[in-house]
UniProtKB/TrEMBL annotation:
Lineage top rank: taxon: Bacteria
Signal peptide: none
InterPro entries assigned: CBS_dom, CBS_dom_sf
Ranges for domain CBS: 9-52, 74-118
Name this polypeptide is given: CBS domain-containing protein
Length: 219
């Protein structure tokens, strides 16, 4: 699997602060981007958005509209989950990539980062997914790993997928098809099962049918 930085794109050069708004408008007509980076002497100074550029005077210079710039970016050292978060927070399909001195290196496209995500074991490898919930002060990643590994399975991916009040929701992908023992162990450790595996649901269905038959026979 490639490192995320191998997806840094330089196909289109950034806008310069001395470019005209007309040039920026043309760029957005030619390419399906929501934002595009602006540089001054190779240093990133912000992004212009398609939405704002469409409303600006085409004769003006990009530099004259700095107060419209949006200043989100990522570093080469950021992990892909953090990069995805920046995409989501800024509702953008392009993000500038900078080094530690704010030198502009290129950009990530959302489609490429999603492709990178699809190549991770979390999505690529076969396995089952369990979503569990517990109070934040009683939950630990090491305990989740221990529960999975004590049942002779391996974790392919694990992340906190939601936080509501004092409870955290954890999504775990496990390299095993028979997950019922793991689910039962989570329950013994007082985790609530949010998303039940098919096998666990099947056992619940059998129990419901058995209870129904018991009631029927006792009529």
């Amino acid at each position: 699997m490639n490192n995320l930085t191998s997806y840094i794109n330089n196909e289109i050069k950034p806008l310069k602060h001395t470019d005209s708004i007309a040039e920026a408008q043309d760029l957005f007509l030619d390419f399906p981007y929501t934002h595009f980076p602006v540089t001054e002497d190779g240093i990133y100074i912000g992004c212009v958005s398609k939405e704002n550029v469409e409303l600006l005077n085409s004769d003006a210079l990009v530099n004259e509209t700095r107060f419209h710039f949006e200043r989100f970016f990522v570093r080469t050292t950021m992990i892909w989950l953090d990069v995805l978060e920046i995409f989501a927070k800024n509702e953008s399909n392009l993000i500038p990539v900078l080094d530690e001195k704010n030198t502009y290196l290129g950009y990530y496209e959302l489609e490429d980062v999603i492709r990178f995500f699809h190549e991770t074991p979390f999505l690529k490898e076969e396995g089952g997914i369990i979503v569990v919930e517990k109070e934040s002060d009683k939950f630990s990643m090491s305990q989740v790993a221990q529960i999975v590994e004590s049942n002779n399975a391996k974790i392919l991916g694990l992340f906190i997928s939601n936080v509501v009040g004092n409870k955290v929701e954890i999504t775990v992908k496990i390299s095993q098809s028979g997950l019922n023992d793991i689910i039962q162990t989570f329950r013994r450790y007082e985790y609530e099962i949010i998303s039940e595996h098919q096998e666990d649901s099947y056992l619940n269905s059998l129990k419901e049918r058995s209870d129904y038959l018991d009631k029927y026979l006792n009529i």
